[in-house]
Amino acid sequence: MKPDIHPVYATATVRCACGNTYQTRSTQAEIHTDICANCHPFFTGKQKLVDTAGRVERFRQKYGKPAAAPSTDS
Asked: Which of 21, 59, 60, 74 sits in a 20 to 30 Å window from 66, CA-based?
């Protein structure tokens, strides 16, 4: 291996938007995430839509089922 070309690999603090923090190793000193194992729906069993700039709502408007028309049976 060539000397002096590898980055420093040290302990890093990972901070999630939910407030959870834990230690790992990385070339960065601090890492910020939006979702971690404590708040991810797969691990918690809770459905949670992560909406970034209204993308989920735009998808529902574009591809969602149209409202049912009232019946005209007489």
From this structure: 74
